[in-house]
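S1.2 Input.
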Amino acid sequence: MLEQRIEQHFIDSADLKYQASQLLSKPIAAAVQAILASVTSGGKVLACGNGGSAADAQHFAAEFVGRYERERPELAAIALTTDSSILTAIANDYDYKLIFSKQVRALGGAGDVLLAISTSGNSDNVLAAIESAHERDMIVVALTGKGGGKIGQVLRETDVHICVPHDRTARIQEVHLLVLHCICDGVDAQLLGDQESTQ
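S1.3 Output.
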């Protein structure tokens, strides 16, 4: 019984990834181009999210600053989820809703990209970060699910929305990780050529 349940998770995850591949390939390619244009012009990516999405933001930043699969020059990315002193000071002195937006205002500038991750599309602090990014003339790349929520309603035409067509958080997060790997691979392919990784 337990083994069947586990097998079903694998099947459901694979099915969603297969179904989403054609739907999401165009916005993922647009995200690659937006991020590539930023980092090759001296810009940076600021990434944020809550819970599992915070882990995804950190995962992405690590693969940009370090490497994905091939050696290349370091790319500028900062996860806004990692500095406990900043996070707790803003949450305590102001409001938890502002933990990312104040960092975007402090660190972001025109030409930078905000990578905003929210499975529901309704995270107040991610929405506030998007608002601050727009004030700074940044492009937003939003990863959502569940129809996109409020985030889908506030994005501009120049932003990129990658909305996983599912309602279950675990499945959305699994596709978000694949999307982030596609972005990393796409940026590397544009910078280094599209040969297969030897790692």
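S1.4 Remarks. Strands lie at 45-48, 77-79, 113-117, 139-145, 160-164.
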